[in-house]
Amino acid sequence: MQSASINFDRFNQLQDNACHERIRAARASLGPRVVMLCHHYQRADVYQYADLTGDSLRLARLASQTDSEYIVFCGVHFMAEVADIMSSPRQKVILPDLAAGCSMADMANLAKVERCWRELNEVLNADEVITPVTYINSAADLKAFCGDHGGIVCTSSNAATIAGWAFGQRQKILFFPDQHLGRWTGHTLGIPLDEMMVWDPDLEMGGLTPEQIRKAKLLLWKGHCSVHQMFQPAHILKFRNQHPDGLVISHPECSFEVCRQSDFVGSTEHIVKVIKEARPGTRWLVGTELNLVTRLAEEVKAEGKIVQFMSPTVCMCSTMQRIDPQHLAWTLENLAAGHTVNQISVPEHEAVLAKLALERMLAIS
Ligand code: 13P
Ligand code: SF4
Description:
Helix content: 40-55%
Radius of gyration: 21 Å
Strand order of the largest sheet: 6-5-7-9-8
Distance between the termini: 48 Å
Order of helices and strands: HHEHEHEHEHHEHEHEHEHEHEHEHEHEHH
Shape: globular
Number of strands: 13
Bound molecules: 1,3-dihydroxyacetonephosphate, iron/sulfur cluster
Mean pLDDT: 97
Strand content: 5-15%
Low-confidence stretches: none
């Protein structure tokens, strides 16, 4: 008879040291049946167990290339959904804490996007003139919406290429849910700011007039990342005054002004690469999540590189942070005991269309 799964309550109070012993034991017993994919923002006490790491694009590709029975995804919900869509049906994707979501992804949902599409159709023929582009930080049903409407997914590392493709299909783009990534991408493609309009999903017609909708090349969903909005141009100014030779690198989820005043803008993988490949002795100000910046600062310290966090206040992604040694130990012990817990399983009808939009992205990036 199959025993019941192990309850998390037993792990909640467990000291970190005890968790680490149990994580190691469970991994040893699972062997190659499990692979751990970790995003760069994961806390150090979880990241140390990563088999494979990356930004969202790299993790999406890796998920389609592993053949382990269990993919334990240390990241957030939308990333685990992508891993489920891209992996084979015999693989199981596990998110150690189901509460690890992304607040930006939650700023758009299918009902609001469908309403937006209907309202746009009152002004122009949306299916003929607009390509919907969803940032990978979105629920699977929004990726499916894009798959179904000739649209596509993008990540922070390929947004300009994807937007170029999208404009090749139709005249305009509806970009959701991150207005900042959308605006920065439009800017890099040479679109003037007054041809990028913010669509507020809580207002009728997005708060726009029919003329504004007709004029817009890029419609930017009013969403943002609460972590990256903490970084301010004033932080860059202060750094440049103190360190005129210093360099600034930011994630494109930062505001337009922060991106504009940075020397480099790119995905988490790009940030890691640029700083690792930089000349020894260089000094960097980095506008992205604290766990990544702290780890990177430590890794390049021996080369005399100084890496500083952009904000004077702590900006961690609280949802990424939810994956802790307690949840990891609980997850792995259950898997080792034959209990699949916290499986992320995208319904078939959504997965098929979402995969279409993801595969369009992977084919051109
Ligand atoms: P990357 O794809 O650059 O890793 O970004 C994911 C993310 O959520 C950044 O906040
Ligand atoms: Fe989402 Fe922002 Fe966290 Fe990235 S840092 S996962 S965009 S909440």
